[in-house]
Specification:
Function: Serine protease involved in intramembrane proteolysis.
EC number: 3.4.21.105
CATH architecture: Up-down Bundle
GO biological process, one term: proteolysis
Subcellular location: Membrane
GO cellular component, one term: membrane
CATH class: Mainly Alpha
Structural class: mainly alpha
Strand order of the largest sheet: 1-2
Largest sheet: 2 strands, parallel
Number of helices: 10
Distance between the termini: 16 Å
Strand content: under 5%
Helix content: 55-70%
Radius of gyration: 20 Å
Order of helices and strands: HHHHHEHHHHHE
CATH superfamily: Rhomboid-like
CATH topology: Rhomboid-like fold
Length: about 240
Amino acid sequence: ITYILLKMGALDVSKVVQGRQGWRLITCIWLHAGVVHLLINVLCLLFIGIRLEQEFGFVRIGLVYLISGFGGSLMSALFIRASISVGASGALFGLIGSMLSELITNWSLYANKVAALLTLVLVIVVNLALGILPRVDNFAHIGGLISGFLLGFVVFIRPQFAWINQRRVAPGPQAAPAEHKHKTYQYILWIVAAILLIVGFTLAIVLLFRGYNANDHCSWCHYLSCVPTKKWKCNSSPTTCTTL
């Protein structure tokens, strides 16, 4: 199965860097290690994506999905050097991350904001904790989560209620002072997130194609993706199929 996945476009750092096959950073998102892996990701996508698509449309959701998946692949390629990776979990984590940033940037629009925030944080923590199991590429999860979190500030910004209501009221002598469409903090978050996205992706791409191995500068980072125990070992064999 490893050979087939490689032929179809699985993420293999050596082929990306030495073979200049950068397209694998995208194609690996559409591949899965088996039927169970595929079904899990499809169910998660339905659970997360339907609400987001109904609220923001398929174009913006598709953009977050693809860019987050690409970000997850970049993070994975910088850390996972001896195994291949396939799967869409990085993109799914991006959608979860975008839900978190959407809540933050549109904070004043929500009623049960604290409960929603705690729920999202709990979901993220639990899923990242599951990522330390063997054969799971938690670096792709982290990369996708960060990418989606930053993207949410950029593409999910919404106008304030006061501005919306003002547009519905006919102008007159008693009209209230004009309200701004967005709050100042929303613009600040938008600018900061956009800058971090551009700089982060540019830096990651340059480092990757220069053969940079992030593990050389972080001796403990490999524990973020797999923690060995008495019940399992963290296999670094080149034939290991790591699911995102």
